[in-house]
TrEMBL record:
Stretches assigned to coiled coil: none
Summary of the function given for this chain in its UniProt record: Involved in oxidative DNA damage repair. Initiates repair of A*oxoG to C*G by removing the inappropriately paired adenine base from the DNA backbone. Possesses both adenine and 2-OH-A DNA glycosylase activities.
Cofactor note: Binds 1 [4Fe-4S] cluster.
InterPro entries: DNA_glycosylase (IPR011257), Endonuclease-III-like_CS2 (IPR004036), Endonuclease3_FeS-loop_motif (IPR003651), HhH-GPD_domain (IPR003265), HhH_base_excis_C (IPR023170), HhH_motif (IPR000445), MIG/MutY (IPR044298), MutY_C (IPR029119)
Molecular-function GO terms, alphabetical: 4 iron, 4 sulfur cluster binding; 8-oxo-7,8-dihydroguanine DNA N-glycosylase activity; adenine/guanine mispair binding; metal ion binding; oxidized purine DNA binding; purine-specific mismatch base pair DNA N-glycosylase activity
GO terms for cellular component: mitochondrion; nucleus
Domain HhH-GPD: 59-211
Encoding gene per record: Mutyh
Main localization, broad class: mitochondrion
Organism ancestry: Eukaryota, Metazoa, Chordata, Craniata, Vertebrata
PANTHER family, sorted: ADENINE DNA GLYCOSYLASE
Protein name (Swiss-Prot/TrEMBL): Adenine DNA glycosylase
Keywords tagged on the record: 4Fe-4S, DNA damage, DNA repair, Glycosidase, Hydrolase, Iron, Iron-sulfur, Metal-binding, Mitochondrion, Nucleus
Subcellular location: Mitochondrion; Nucleus
Length: 412
């Protein structure tokens, strides 16, 4: 494909310098007070500073700031250093992470902490290249964020917020998730980053996307860099059809322009950008889940939970005994299959008619639309599942909520 024309790039040094100055001045005035920012700004020890930023960046992946703050504070209170995290058990990590979602993040974070302690003498890598190369679970974005914020490396970052801001600043209308566009956005981020305050600049760019240049109803009037934004200028000075738009490339095969089949929609304004390929709908799955209940030694009800495999979805978390179901299975057949599975687990007969249907719970994972068909079964006496299948234990309601269980199981 033809190279993108200059209008898509930041090729004017004076404009780049003005954009940096405006954005940093706005950030100094308007940045949110967040615990990881306070730690990064005040922690004199470089490794602790890098660890504090690293934890926040992993937690913030696919998760909103408001949700992360409490988890982050509890995490840093429990494991204030890499060394403390390296000594923790995976069960402890899963318990603290429970409810935050994308559970493999916590597991990889602990694995990487152990690697830093055991193989790198407790010293965090200092550059984005080494962070990405040496630490499991640290990708290009996280490496750039840690290196710029903690160690002052002048390297850019590209996350969802930055993609949105850059696509609007330069009217990039090609699929923003495509490798070609992502590579170009990284080039732009590296051109823009301020060499004297790289961490602050990257946080300012992300903050702008999170609070002003939001996906819907962006606050363009409050934007500190709107005079550099081609999408805003196009909205402001757009010409009615059929007068050719001066912002159009007219190059024919520009890799960054919107496809000809998706022209500018004046009703959308700046929210014409960014554009993404249509998401695949999440696949539908059904699961029969049985809440096995007994009377505990102190009279309070207890419930049986089992541990999921150490890999795959919700790896290592605890759940009520569950069984995947075919989509078109009738309720009677569901009961029979669940009863058969429980019988195999417990080594004692289980009557399908004894399973009480409670209801259905729907939980949406990023790629799965999961329906839990929930049954209940009261038991007399102790029951131990076959240890060759999976670990199991009886818990009270309070113990259940304190265990490493998913949000979906809490709904159940």
């Amino acid at each position: 494909p033809a190279p993108p024309p200059a209008r898509h790039l930041f090729s004017d040094p004076a404009e780049v310098e003005a954009l940096r100055g405006n954005l940093l001045a706005w950030y100094d005035r308007c940045k949110r007070d967040l615990p990881w920012r306070a730690l990064a700004a005040t922690e004199p020890d470089a490794d602790r500073r890098g660890y504090a930023v690293w934890v926040s960046e992993i937690m913030l992946q696919q998760t909103q700031v408001a949700t992360v703050i409490d988890y982050y504070n509890r995490w840093m209170q429990k494991w204030p250093t890499l060394q403390a995290l390296a000594q923790a058990s995976l069960e402890e990590v899963n318990e603290l992470w429970a409810g935050l979602g994308y559970y493999s993040r916590g597991k990889r974070l602990q694995e990487a902490a152990r690697k830093v302690v055991s193989e790198l003498a407790g010293r965090m890598p200092r550059t984005a290249q080494d962070l990405q190369k040496l630490l499991p679970g640290v990708g290009r974005y996280t490496a750039g964020a840690i290196a710029s914020i903690s160690y002052g490396q002048a390297t850019g970052v590209v996350d969802g917020n930055v993609i949105r801001v850059l696509c609007r600043l330069r009217c990039i209308g090609a699929d923003s998730s495509s490798p070609a566009v992502i590579d170009r956005l990284w080039d732009m981020a590296n051109v823009l980053v301020d060499s004297t305050r790289p961490g602050d600049f990257n946080q300012a760019l992300m903050e702008l996307g999170a609070t002003v240049c939001v996906p819907k109803a962006p606050l363009c009037g409050e934007c500190p860099v709107k005079q550099h934004c081609q999408a805003w200028r196009r909205k402001l000075f757009g010409k009615p059809h059929p007068v050719p738009d001066v912002e159009d490339c007219c190059v024919g095969d520009c890799p960054l322009c919107p496809p000809a089949t998706e022209p500018w929609d004046s009703n959308l304004g700046v929210t014409n950008f960014p554009r993404k390929a249509a998401k695949k709908p999440p696949r539908a799955m059904r699961m029969a889940t049985c809440v096995l209940e007994r009377r505990g030694c102190h009279g309070a009800p207890e419930y049986l939970i089992v541990q999921r495999p150490s890999s795959g979805l919700l790896a290592g978390l605890w759940e009520f005994p569950s069984l995947p179901l075919a989509q078109d299975l009738q309720e009677e057949k569901e009961r029979e299959e669940l009863a058969g599975q429980l019988q195999a687990w417990m080594g004692r007969p289980v009557a399908a008619k004894g399973l009480q249907f409670i209801g259905k719970v729907i939980h949406i994972f990023s790629h799965i639309h999961q329906t839990y068909v929930v049954y209940s079964l009261h038991l007399d006496g102790d029951v131990t599942l076959d240890p060759a299948l999976s670990p199991s234990r009886w818990v009270t309601e309070d113990e259940f909520h304190a265990s490493a269980v998913s949000t979906a199981m809490k709904k159940v």
